[in-house]
Amino acid sequence: MAIFDIKLPNRMAKALRLANGDVCKQQLRILKKLLHKARFTEFGQKYHFDNILMQPDPVKAFQQNVPIYNYSSIYKQWWHRSLENKPDVCWPGKVKYYALSSGTSDAASKYLPITNDLLQGNKLVMIKQLLSLRNYTDINVRSIGRGWLLLSGSTDLQKGIGHYLGDLSGITVKKSPFWFQPFYKPTKEIAREKDWNKKLEEIVDNAGDWDIGFIVGVPAWVQMCMEMVIEKYHLNNIHEIWPNLSYFVHGGVSFEPYKKGFNKLLGKPLTYIETYLASEGFIAYQNRQDACGGMRLVVSDHIFFEFVPFDDRNFTPDGDLVENPEILLAHQVSEGKDYALLISTPAGAWRYLLGDTIRFTDVSRSEIIISGRTKHFLSLVGEHLSVDNMNKAIQLAGEELDLPITEFTVSGEPHGSFFAHRWFVACDQPVDKPVLAAVIDKHLKALNDDYAVERKSALREIFVEVFPEETFLKFLEIRGKMGGQHKFPRVLKGGLLEAWKNF
Q1: pLDDT in tens, 90-143
Q2: Quick one: which of 29, 92, 115, 284 has the fewest CB in 10 Å?
Q3: CATH at 412
Q4: What is the pTM of this model?
Q5: Domain hosting residue 437, numbered range
Q6: In what residue span(s) does the GH3 middle domain sit (predicted)?
Q7: From the DSSP assignment, how many helices (H) and strands (E) are in the chain?
Q8: DSSP symbol at 175
């Protein structure tokens, strides 16, 4: 059964035929569609969506009338009412699903509304990404029609009052369309398993019965799964049991730090495909092989985007948005600059500060990379160290010293009258810590001018602590963050840093 030959529902097929056109017009169309559908909700009535739609410039009117929200403010003012089973709050009807997510912060779990309209939009983007494999020079059609192993959260969702709670990945699998069922692995029984360790064991036990062409998941958990399969069946590499495995679809964290250890598990190269699927919506996906790490922003589908330049004029030193920040649209951005994302979605998120920062690598193609988090960056003394800087430095240090560094995190701390960075690194090989610290420091100086300047001033020391990878995974386990979309935070601050120190 060739997946390219599947007959899709008419509504979905029509949406997929939309031509790529002017970004400004595409985004205006999406905003109008969102406003029109939500005009009779409580939110739409309060902010006069009908009136906004009648204005000569609906985008400008939307920005003037609707305030910017973060999770705390929109939940406190609006979303808690939907969670109490009230209809038509921020989106028409009742919200039947909520994704539980704490991201990589130390906050309590967030309850993010997941509507059928959002899931429908996400599915369209998933199909577009699948069809974009035609742009790859080494496409393996045979593998596309094989099994797809999704290392997702449990599909056995928690029952609330009129709704269900769970990981977005678990909700997505539970609501997956009929035409995808023949390809999906593991079995429905295994997918329902809530204990992540038991789920992995059951996947490993059944691995010999499956012909896997695609693996989808967070790199750390996929690597662990493959290692367990190789160990159980006494294999030299994963391709001895899954010879048709050709694609790894990943997201959530930079894959570069994992690639060295990942490749040791393979009998032949894989095609790596990056996605940006947040709990709030499908933001971007890699759609061509020569994208230089960039993913295509989904400007023509179901999300309206706004961009806040991530700089000192728009954000406080703690990463909080200032009042009246500069706001740009998709056709006004520049390459090479970091922007915080505001999104409006068909799940009732309106001008919602996602918390991620992105950087455009190709404006003409609307291609981006994830550069970090508004809160998860280090700037103790003005070094402005982004997650992207950290990922690249770890990658280069691992290559230079021939070390498979699978996880890392960083904290800032006082050092006498000055300051220091402390790196916690996962590596199962012997490491000369002072040498690793010096190499990381060297690459960061080359990557970040502000960092280089502050290393001559108030940022006096760089320390490295090395632990087995198991230590990092155990920490996630005791915090209930095993598997699914959970990943280790790249910067430790506040309560999360204290929990790590205590651990």
Answers
A1: 999 999 999 887 544 444 578 999 999 999 999 999 888 888 887 776 766 676
A2: 29
A3: 3.30.300
A4: 0.78
A5: 387-502
A6: 298-363
A7: 19, 18
A8: T
